[in-house]
């Protein structure tokens, strides 16, 4: 009986011991998990602080770059007599006595110092953007936190830069666009495109910076003053009379004769204004200061997760198009604005059979790609959006010889030899901000099965019914929320511009929202 009782005591002690051991092990596991949780929470907080610091550094760089660009632009404006550095004016030739070249006012187009200053600011500022380098360092999870994490996001980034967020942040600044340059009473205001910064180890979370730089401005009224003085006192007047009158108005002005021209130098706080003019010929028209801006389009009000890394090299704010067995991209990835991607997703509802699956051959383009497309057009290729500053692209295309091979290169070589000033405009990538492919508001699309008339009709039914607007000159080109789209919607038509495919278009009721 005593032995039986002792056995029960032994079992009880053993049970209590095992229970205590299990509780201790469970407590240890809970404590470890809680510590790891704290580590991850702390890690995310650190990474958010880091990306905010990166954004602040980039904004400081943009502020300093804008300040120096504005100062340099004012100086270049003065050197070119109130014109943009890449102007089309004739210049005086260098001689043994006169080593500087002077812009000849009489050979120039309209004199608008404000508009020229905007172009010069962009040119100077782009040089600073192109050399920007981030010094961001990725958090080392293994070394600093003794944890690891798989990052699927980096699968689409080249092997050599997979661990470098500074690669993405550097490209964000280098590829940013100058949206608007405007003048207030006291400031020049430079607005850049939105810049998305992915938060390290927390994709697709991001923060967005909306840089807008205010720089104290200098008055350009001196250009109008000297223009009026010369126009009133020098044109069709004797040179001596001209010289005497303008020296009354400008005490520091320097005037020299050069053949039939008068050379002018006027020192100012922002640079020495210099130019030449022929007193026997009329001056170009002078335009009042005007605001020049470079808007992309309205901003998106809702917050959308942006995986900018996959759309690197394009303007900020674009996201990859979703692909499935109904809609695919010809390239591995194609990108567009978030609302355009949403419209593509909506289009899937109108694809009723596997034989109708659509292939996007072109969506958002980089400004560089758009420039190449425009050069291709000039030498006989498909119509393409051109840069701001080309007055009549079709007239220019008539001048450039057509080519059967390497059209873009052929056009470039011809322009380099015959019209280098225009080539400079074409190569200025900031000038393509209004192009619909660059904005991510247009897609080139077709049925994957073919391009027959029947295929084109079938495509038109799908796209029109789902609420797209077709450019009437290209059966494959569709736009969403653009000026052409608005025109088509107002007219309750599925296309805008001249419709060259009217003979094969079916009757479809537009599906505009």
Rg, rounded, reads 32 Å
Main sheet strand line-up: 11-13-14-16-15-17
Distance between the termini: 91 Å
Q: Which structural class matches the secondary elements? A: alpha+beta
What's the total number of strands?
17
User: Strand-residue fraction?
Assistant: 5-15%
Number of discrete helical segments: 14
Counting structural domains, the number is 3
Characterize the quaternary organization of these chains.
Answer: single chain
Shape: flat
What is the averaged pLDDT score? Answer: 81
Q: What is the share of helical residues?
A: 40-55%
Largest sheet, strands/sense/barrel: 6 strands, mixed
Low-confidence stretches: 33-38, 149-163, 290-308
Sum up the structure in keywords:
14 helices; four-stranded antiparallel sheet; alpha+beta; six-stranded mixed sheet; single chain; 513 residues; Muramoyl-pentapeptide Carboxypeptidase, domain 2
Give an account of the 3D structure.
There is one protein chain. The protein has 14 helices and 17 strands. It has 513 residues and is α+β, with helices and mostly antiparallel strands. It folds into three domains: 41-295, no CATH class; 308-365 and 436-504, 2-Layer Sandwich (Muramoyl-pentapeptide Carboxypeptidase, domain 2); 367-432, no CATH class. The strands form five sheets. It has a six-stranded mixed sheet with strand order 11-13-14-16-15-17. Strands 5-2-1-9 form a four-stranded antiparallel sheet. Strands 6-7-8 form a three-stranded antiparallel sheet. β7 (261-268) and β8 form a beta hairpin. α1 (2-79) packs across α2, α5 (221-233) packs antiparallel against α6 and α10 (407-418) crosses α11. The chain is flat.
């Amino acid at each position: 009986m005593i032995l039986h009782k002792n056995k029960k005591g032994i079992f009880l002690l053993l049970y209590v011991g095992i229970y205590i051991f299990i509780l201790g092990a469970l407590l240890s596991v809970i404590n470890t998990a809680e510590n790891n949780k704290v580590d991850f929470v702390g890690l995310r907080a650190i990474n958010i602080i880091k990306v905010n610091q990166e954004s602040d550094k980039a904004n400081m760089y943009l502020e300093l770059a804008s300040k120096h660009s504005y100062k340099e632009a004012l100086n270049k404006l003065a050197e070119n007599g109130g014109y943009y550095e890449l102007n089309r004016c004739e210049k005086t030739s260098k001689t043994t006595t006169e080593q500087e070249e002077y812009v000849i006012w009489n050979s120039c187009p309209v004199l608008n110092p404000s508009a020229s200053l905007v172009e010069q600011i962009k040119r100077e500022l782009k040089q600073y953007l192109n050399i920007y380098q981030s010094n961001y360092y990725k958090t080392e999870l293994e070394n600093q936190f003794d944890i690891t994490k798989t990052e699927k996001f980096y699968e689409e980034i080249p092997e050599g830069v997979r661990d470098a967020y500074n690669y993405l942040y550097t490209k964000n600044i280098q590829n940013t666009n100058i949206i608007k340059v405007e003048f207030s009473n006291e400031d020049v205001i430079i607005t850049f495109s939105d810049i998305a910064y992915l938060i390290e180890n927390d994709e697709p979370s991001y923060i967005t910076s909306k840089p807008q730089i205010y720089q104290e401005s200098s008055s350009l009224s001196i250009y109008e003053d000297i223009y009026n003085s010369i126009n009133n006192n020098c044109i069709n007047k004797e040179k001596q009379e001209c010289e005497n009158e303008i020296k009354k108005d400008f005490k520091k002005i320097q005037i020299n004769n050069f053949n039939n021209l008068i050379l002018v130098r006027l020192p100012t706080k922002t640079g020495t204004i210099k130019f030449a003019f022929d007193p026997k010929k009329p001056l170009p028209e002078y335009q009042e200061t005007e605001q020049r801006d470079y808007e992309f389009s309205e901003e998106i009000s809702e917050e959308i997760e942006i995986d900018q890394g996959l759309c690197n090299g394009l303007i900020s704010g674009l996201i990859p198009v979703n692909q499935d067995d109904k809609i695919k991209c010809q390239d591995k990835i194609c990108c567009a604005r978030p609302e355009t991607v949403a419209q593509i997703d909506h289009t899937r509802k109108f694809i009723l059979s596997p034989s109708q699956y659509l292939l996007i051959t072109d969506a958002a383009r980089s400004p560089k790609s758009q420039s190449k497309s425009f050069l291709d057009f000039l030498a006989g290729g498909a119509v393409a959006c051109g840069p701001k500053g080309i007055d009549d692209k079709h007239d220019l295309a008539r001048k450039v010889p057509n080519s059967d091979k390497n059209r873009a290169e052929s056009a470039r070589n011809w322009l380099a030899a015959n019209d280098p000033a225009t080539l400079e405009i074409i190569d200025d990538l900031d000038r393509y901000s209004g192009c619909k492919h660059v904005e991510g508001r247009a897609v080139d699309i077709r049925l994957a099965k073919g391009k027959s008339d029947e295929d084109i009709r079938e495509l038109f039914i799908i796209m029109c019914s789902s609420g797209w607007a077709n450019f009437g000159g290209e059966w494959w080109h569709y736009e969403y929320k653009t000026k052409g789209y608005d025109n088509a919607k107002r007219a309750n038509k599925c296309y805008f511009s001249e419709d060259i495919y009217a003979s094969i278009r079916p009757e479809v009721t537009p599906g505009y929202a």
